[in-house]
Amino acid sequence: DTEGQQKALEILRPIAEQSTDPLVWGYVSLRWARLHVHRGAYLPVLQETAQVLERLQALPESSDVTALIVEFLAIRTDILWRLRRLEEAESDLKQALALGRGRLPVPLLTTLLTSWTYLLMEQGDVEAALVKCAEVEVLARQQGQQRRHAITLNLRARLLMLQGQVQQATQALEEALAITRLLRHADLQKAFLLNLSQLYPRLGKLTEAEAAAEELRPLLGPQPSARDEANLQERLAKVYWAKGDPTAATAALHRAIAAFDRTDERGNQAKMRLLLARYLSQQGQRNQAQRYVDEARPLVGQTPAQQLWLATEEARACLPAQPAEALARLEPHLALTAPAEDAQETAQYVLTEAHLALGQYEQARQCLDRVPQPPYWMAEYAALRDKAARDEYEPHSTVG
Q1: Alpha-carbon span 66 to 99, nearest angstrom
Q2: What is the pLDDT of residues 54-81, one digit of tens each?
């Protein structure tokens, strides 16, 4: 009950400020920060954390003070990663590990190592991320940390997805979900069901994907956080699209955009608009699609993956009339981008369309050969394979 926690913290915070023990307000602030991270309110937490760290660092050194400082650095690392401020996140992570100097409690150490794994993943070093992930898994098993073990299985699944090992990723996630069902940890069940609803379509399991998304609904509660609602609607949109229901898919994406707009996640605000632009474009609604590309542009961050998302939809807008311009816009971004869910795959489809429009069938087939198997977007992949095998090209819309 996040609303109840919020009300309790509103009462506790002024009381904690009056406490003669300076750590009391620190612990209350920590609870406040965790609650707001869960709700997707990252910027207020960054401001609060900066103030709390300044006050804590002014206190006489003690193991309790150091542990609290590390806790706040861990929270800030997580937020900075979510905001794709990777250099700052890495700096905070290194500071936290240095402060701990091998004396951190195992739960906090595994939290920091998990953040390290996410950073490596975001930086494109999937192999190093898998190694770090294995370290966390060993620690979690040794200490009997079932919750952390489940979190690590989920993270391993994400890394395996980036390597195209979809079946193995699904197995890891299903194991993680089974653990959390036994533990009755609804927050983790939510995350794992979201990820399974994304994985199942790649295995052709659309019924299972929709069932995972629907199982998620009651776990969100009567008043889900904006972030939870946004994630659910995004997954439903992709399932509906894969099932060939573009009307339901675009409606779900509109709901996802409205929900993400109530958070500080500018990257996801941009990504949902670009995904909606894609769906609209493939339904022939090009003017509407351009509107969402224009809305997304100022929200897109500087990470290569986000730049690729934008370049892909800008290139799509050039088709079919200006295929050479589409290639020129998109190709420079491909070499800079590490594996990032379906970003590379979607870009290859637009490149395929451009090459087909130019009559370059061999180049089109080469683009499709670069799509990881199984594809995220099976119907689109199959339709373009069929087009690339023909002697003539006709611009088409693909729902899939």
Answers
A1: 7
A2: 999 999 988 889 999 999 999 999 999 8
Q: Which of 44, 25, 28 is nearest to 36 (CA)?
A: 44
Q: Report which of 286, 274, 397, 284 is spatially closest to residue 341, judged by C-alpha positions.
A: 274
Burial category of 21 from C-beta neighbours within 10 Å (exposed 0-12, middle 13-18, buried 19 and up):
exposed
Pull the structure tokens for residue 174: 């299903």
Output the six-digit token pair for 366. 């080469």
User: Would you state the structure tokens that stand for residue 241, as one six-digit string?
Assistant: 């699209």
In one-letter notation, the amino acid at residue 97 is L
Give the tens place of pLDDT for each residue, 121-147.
988 899 999 999 999 999 998 888 899
Helix-helix angle 286-296:266-282, to 10 degrees:
170
C-alpha 133/C-alpha 33 separation (Å) is 25
pLDDT digits (tens, 9 = 90+) for 243-297: 999 999 999 999 999 999 999 899 999 999 999 999 999 999 999 999 999 999 9
Number of residues written out for the chain:
400
Contacts 24+ apart (CB under 8 A), 24-30: 26/52, 26/55, 26/56, 26/68, 27/68, 30/68, 30/71, 30/72, 30/75
Per domain, the residue ranges of the chain are 298-400
Distance in angstroms (rounded) separating the CA atoms of residues 43 and 36: 9
Q: Which amino acid is at 253?
A: L
Provide the token pair at 307.
Answer: 């730049």
Rg of the chain over all Cα atoms, to the nearest angstrom: 23
pLDDT tens-digit readout, 35-45:
888 878 899 99
Token pair 């989920």 in the structure block, residue: 154
Q: Left if phi > 0, otherwise alpha if psi is -120 to 50, otherwise beta: which for 319?
A: beta
Residue type present at position 59: L
Residue 102 amino acid letter? G
H helix count then E strand count, the chain: 20, 0
Residue 361 CB partners (closer than 8 Å, separation 6+): 355, 388, 393
